[in-house]
Each structure stands twice: as C-alpha cells, then as structure tokens.
Design brief:
The chain is α+β, with helices and mostly antiparallel strands. It contains 16 helices and 15 strands. Strands 6, 7, 8, 10, 11 and 13 form a six-stranded antiparallel β-sheet that branches. Residues 266-295 form the 4Fe-4S ferredoxin-type domain.
Length: 488
C-alpha cells in the first residue's frame, strides 16, 4: 500500500468552470399604448387613490369613539370599518375575509388567468409606478440601456440620484399611509410635524418605506417570478377554458423579420407567418417574458404584449390579435378553422363562487344578528370548592360582561340549574341574593369575582351543569355561558 496521497485535482485555466447561478438579465420594460395599458393606468389610479385616501375618511360613531372610517386601533383593541366594529373575540371575521379573498383570487384566476397579478397586486401597482418615474427621467428603453452602459458622469449621476430620490419619496408616503390605518390620521400627522411621534411608529414607517423601495425599485419581477407563492397556486388553477394571454403560433410561425421589398404573399409562399420577430412583445413585458414560447410562470397576464403586437400588426397591414386573451380550447379550434364555445360555468368556477357566497352570507348574517352582550365565565380550579363551617358549599367564578354598546348598561346576573343558590360579589359593597345587579361601562369589559353558595344538602355531589345568565335591564337582551358547580 502506497503511503503517498494522490495529487489533488487541478483546474485547467482555459477550461470554463461550471456556474451554479446564472445572473438574470435586467428587464428594461418599454412603454406601450393600447387598451390594456389604459386599463392598467385606470387600475393603478383607483387602487393608489383608495390606499392613500381611505385613512382620511371620517365616520361619526358618537362621543368618545374614533371617527376614522377605517381604523385598526391596537391600543383600544378594536377594528373599525365604517359602521362595523370588530372586537378581539370576533377574530373569526378576519378569517372569513381571508377565505373570501383567497377564493376570490381562485375564482378570478380560473376565469381570466393571472388577472390579479397583472392589475391589482400591490407589487405590480407600485412597480408600475416606479417604472413610470424611471421612464420619465431616463427616457425610453434604448436610452435607459445606453445610460446604464455609459461611464459615470455628472448627467448620469444626476438622473440616477433624482430617480432614487423620487422612489424614496413615494416609498415614504406609502409607509406613512400604512401606519395611518393603525392610528388616527390627523393626530398622527400633527405628531409627525411637531416631532412628537413615537419611535415605534417611526420604526414601522421606516420598515414599510424600505420594503416598498426595495421590492418596487430593485426586486420588481424577481418577486413575481421567484418569491411570490401565488404564481405556483395560480398556475395550477388554469385549465383549457381559462382566458390567458396567448400567442397564436398557428398564425404567427414561422417567424422572420419583414424585408422592405417582401410582400405577404411571398412570405406565405416561403412558409412564414405574421410574426415579424420584432420582439416588441418581449420588450414591453414587465417580467421580460417571451409569450411566443407558450404559457410561462413568469407571465403575469397584464396584456401589454397584446397592445404592442396589435400596434405592429396595424403598421404592417395585418389583422390584429396575433397575441390575445383566449382559451386553449378555442386556440385548438381556431387552428382547425372552427370556434370553441365559451364555458364560464365550470365545476371549479361554480364551487369557488358558492364558497364565496356562503362565507360572505354567513358573515353578513352574523354581523346583522350578533349580540351587543357577551358573557364569559371562568370557574376557580384551586380549590374546586370550599365547604364552610355551617356545611354550605361555595364555588368562585370570574365573570366578564362584554358591553358592545356605546352606552353604560346595567345587568341582572343569575344562575340556572342550581336550586337555592345564593350569589355574592367579592367587593367592599358586596351584595348577595339569588341575583346580582352589575354595571358595565360603554364599549368595555366589566370583570367581577362572584361567589355561588348552596346550602348543605342542597348541592348534588360531584359536578352540576349550570348556566350563568346576564340580562340587560334596558333592552332585555340576555347573555349566557355554561359552566359547572362542584360539590363534595
């Protein structure tokens, strides 16, 4: 056996090394005009308007109650949405909203592909706004490419600094608008202006400012392609009857540039199609997707390539919609000279719609019928019971009365299912009897420690099911909570 180790392997300097990661080319999205571009501008204006304006809307709820129409009051532990007031105990409404939102996206995706990603996703909306600023300052696509390749100069430095300054300003306004949803907007703005704002508020504003600047300014399509989980979910929901951005390869192939002296009859004789390989559909795509290669997970379904291609087809005298929103089944039929029927009602669309309607209906009924009174009871477990010197058995309970009205209320507390029960309150001015009079301030939770005592011989050994009742003296509304009474 040789004691000499084999020589380590060496790399030939001229031999290319294997690359583990390939840098993605930067996307320089070109500007385009058309109906889908106008639709995106409209969606951007509406969504940004709603986002920035909503915290400033007022809604009168009475004295002592926040008058901001949409507010998540973390200090007061309330969420306000116009006339709806949500308490922490009603977090299931948030669950319902998440279910409706998720299945709403499922439903829209099944019908129109990644319409959410292309028009309503915050990443798309703010990235579109940032790219508009970039185009206004640095010019069209070709000028931006030349500017990035050019050496550093005073002009380049000025354009880049101006662009990033505007991006940061938009990000700051975005982060500031978000924290207005969790604080009274006019009050918080005054605190910011006077320097009295807390460091927590500034920290959250800085966090949202930084994420907006990074996601919309730097990451852009990387978020849509590599980070966002919806891309995978939505890709699995598309079927042959979903309207998606489609390239009609049966009409466009084979593709080749159009020569000046070449007629369309000559191109047809040569086996060429309508696509002149101008690549404008790729240049206008915000994710750099070549839709001519078929459906890809990077396509966000915005339809800008449709506008670009239709413009080119009009210039060369060919029919439009070489790229269009269409279904796979219709494309197969068109290739054979036929037309497939539109199938909007399909099992999955019907199921998604029913789930949305059922959840929304259940939430609406629950909101309409929800009580203004809630009672919770927690029985002491140590000790399970106390047997007094005269033989009476006593249990202790912590009772919380939730008054959801905006007025102070008085309640009569009693216990059902326990004969000869005597109730008392653990306080200085204790009262006792078969019922108690308890008060709860407006829009608050009143907590009381209650003793329930049963005479010797009247208590059933072991556990006895009881119901604690709280009756609103004014409205007559009753709140119930089941518990048990323990006896030896």
């Amino acid at each position: 056996m040789s004691l000499i180790s084999p020589a380590p392997a060496t790399h030939d300097a001229d031999q290319p090394r294997e690359r583990w990661f390939v840098q993605r080319p930067k996307v320089y999205a070109a500007d385009v005009r058309g109906r889908f571009r106008q639709l995106k501008w409209l969606a951007l204006a509406i969504l940004l308007g709603v986002y920035y304006v909503t915290p400033w809307l007022r809604w009168d709820r009475g004295p002592g109650i926040p008058d901001q129409a949409v507010l998540v009051d973390m200090v007061g532990r309330r969420a306000y949405f116009f006339w709806i007031e949500i308490w922490p105990q009603e977090v299931y409404y948030l669950t319902g909203l998440l279910i409706i939102g998720a299945f709403g996206i499922f439903f829209a995706t099944t019908l129109l592909g990644r319409i959410w990603c292309g028009y309503a996703c915050p990443q798309t909306v703010w990235s579109d706004l940032f790219m508009w600023v970039e185009r206004k300052l640095e010019g069209p696509r070709t000028e931006r490419i030349r500017l990035d390749k050019a050496p550093l100069s005073a002009r380049k430095l000025g354009l880049k600094a101006s662009k990033h300054a505007i991006w940061l300003a938009i990000s700051l306004v975005t982060g500031g608008a978000w924290i207005f949803y969790f604080n009274d907007a006019p009050t918080l703005l005054r605190e910011i202006a006077t320097g009295e704002v807390s460091w927590k508020v500034l920290a959250f504003a800085g966090l949202f400012t930084a994420t907006t600047y990074f996601f919309a300014g730097w990451a852009r399509e990387q978020i849509c392609i590599y980070v966002c989980p919806w891309r995978s979910f939505q890709a699995a929901m598309v079927d042959e009857d979903t309207y998606v951005v489609t390239y009609q390869d049966w009409r466009g192939e084979g593709r080749a540039p159009l020569r000046k002296s070449q007629s369309w009859d000559e191109r047809t004789a040569e086996g060429l199609g309508d696509c002149i390989d101008c690549k404008l559909c790729v240049h206008v795509c915000p994710t750099g997707t070549d839709i001519r290669k078929g459906q890809q997970i990077s396509c966000i379904g915005c339809g800008l390539c449709v506008d670009a291609c239709n413009d080119v087809m009009a210039q060369v005298g060919r029919p439009g919609d070489l790229i269009l929103f269409d279904t796979r089944s219709n494309q197969v039929a068109r290739a054979d000279g036929q037309a497939a029927p539109v199938r909007l009602l399909r099992p999955r669309t019907v199921i998604y719609a029913l789930i949305i309607l059922v959840v929304a209906g259940a939430m609406a009924v629950s909101l309409a019928l929800r009580p203004t009174l809630d009672v919770s009871v927690l029985r002491d477990r140590a000790p399970l019971y106390v047997q007094q010197s005269n033989g009476d058995v006593q249990n202790a309970y912590t009772i919380k009365i939730l008054n959801k009205t905006h007025e102070a209320r008085t309640y009569r507390l009693s216990v059902e299912g326990l004969a000869n029960a005597d109730l008392s309150v653990a306080s200085v001015d204790a009262q006792s009897g078969n019922s108690l009079t308890l008060n709860a301030e407006a829009d608050s939770v009143a907590t009381y420690r209650i003793f329930v005592r049963v005479p010797q011989g009247a208590a059933t050994p072991g556990s006895t099911d009881v119901t604690v009742l709280a009756r609103d003296v004014t409205s007559g509304e009753i709140g119930r909570h089941r518990s048990v009474f323990m006896a030896p």
